[in-house]
Design brief:
The complex is a heterodimer of chains A (242) and B (103). With 242 residues, chain A is of the alpha+beta class. Helices cover 38% and strands 26% of the residues of chain A. In chain A, helix 4 packs antiparallel against helix 5. Chain A is elongated and about 80 Å long. In chain B, helix 1 runs antiparallel to helix 2. Classes of the chains: A alpha+beta (242), B mainly alpha (103). At the A-B interface, helix 1, strand 5, helix 2, strand 6 and helix 4 of A face helix 1, strand 1, strand 2, helix 2 and helix 3 of B. Strand 10 of chain A pairs parallel with strand 1 of chain B, so a sheet runs across the interface.
């Protein structure tokens, strides 16, 4: 390993002239290139022990995202995992050589697509009616409570069914779907790989479902467009002699 | 449905937990990806985060919290009790040591 020439690798893309931010450059090999920047590995020291909301980590992550997006605005892109540090430009070329066919095929598949996030989230349930138990007998109270629970349960089931229909419909408008880690109270948290030509139809469907979802005490929201982060979860194996 | 800025949590989850992984010996592991990934997943799933993001639906849900009475561990009292136990154990040890001396 060489000393003092570490490169942070952000993304694999096509080997074409790119407008890149200061400090970043493209290392090319045949039709592919990897976007890199000189980096001091010390910047990443102990980063894995930081809480995700730590400012240092957030800054590094935003930086990574900004570089990937800059490339994505111009060419299809394979985002690399955060903290991919290469041992100099030779290593960058070896990476491209070893993963050439896989990366090229994947770039071709992703060309003309963007990732959109769709989330269905329960909002606060309806507030309990004011002083519901005033003047009720115990039996009446229990009956009312049972009714309320039954209604809530029915609403949850209905909402679940609506969410599944939404997912089915959106899937038909997308080239791919990826499940993501779901936070509490979130019924759907999907990423869709949508062809740019089909984006308005995709969002039209989301819009069409919005009222129905709201009627069940939930909201549907979209995030994006994203570079295809959620659709590039594979490994490129590169050995020393590769 | 207007275009919104994507939240930091969304960016974190994508950048730290997704994307192509380079395996092999051409780089240096400066980041324990699995550890980071785990942290991010916990972060996203954590109730505290959910609360900060306004997703604390259960705190207002009468089914989960009919009359929520927060049960809190009193850390100060806990610490005081621990200190007393330590003192008593030390005193006990000293006492038994003394009684053993004459033998």
């Amino acid at each position: 390993m060489s000393a003092g020439s570490w490169l942070c690798a952000y993304a694999i893309t096509r080997n074409r002239p790119l407008a890149l931010g200061p400090g970043t450059r493209l290392v090319g090999h045949r039709e592919l290139g990897v976007v890199v920047a000189d980096v001091d590995p010390a910047r990443y020291e102990r980063v894995d022990t930081l809480e995700p909301q730590d400012a240092t980590l957030a800054e590094l992550v935003r930086e990574h995202d900004a570089v990937v997006r800059a490339v994505f605005r111009q060419e299809p892109v394979l985002p690399l995992r955060f903290g991919s540090i290469l041992d100099g430009e030779d290593a960058a070329v070896r990476l491209l050589r070893a993963g050439y066919e896989q990366a090229r095929a994947c770039l071709a598949d992703l060309d003309g697509h963007r990732e959109w996030g769709v989330r269905v989230r329960r909002t606060a349930s309806a507030p309990p009616s004011s002083r519901p138990d005033a003047g009720l007998t115990g039996t009446q109270y229990l009956a009312q409570r049972r009714q309320k629970l039954k209604a809530d349960e029915q609403n949850r089931a209905d909402l679940g069914a609506v969410a599944e229909r939404l997912r089915d419909v959106l899937r038909r408008h997308a080239a791919g779907r990826a499940d993501r880690t779901r936070a509490p109270g979130v019924l759907v948290d999907d990423a869709y790989l949508v062809p740019t030509a089909g984006e308005s139809a995709f969002h039209g469907e989301v819009q069409r479902f919005a009222d129905e979802v709201r009627g069940h005490g939930a909201t549907v929201e979209t995030t994006g467009p994203w570079p295809p982060y959620s659709f590039t979860g594979f490994e490129l194996e590169v050995s020393a002699d590769g | 449905m207007a275009d919104r800025s994507d939240s930091l949590a969304d960016i974190l989850e994508r950048v730290l937990d997704k994307g192509v992984v380079i395996a092999g010996d051409i780089g240096v592991s400066v980041v324990d990806i699995e550890l980071l990934t785990l942290r991010v997943r916990l972060f996203i799933a954590s109730a505290q985060t959910a609360k900060e993001m306004g997703m604390d639906w259960w705190t207002n849900d009468p089914f989960f919290a009919p009359k929520s009475v927060p049960v809190e561990l009193d850390n100060t009292e806990n610490a005081q009790l621990r200190a007393r136990v330590a003192d008593l154990e030390a005193a006990l040890a000293a006492a038994s040591h003394r009684t053993e001396l004459p033998r």
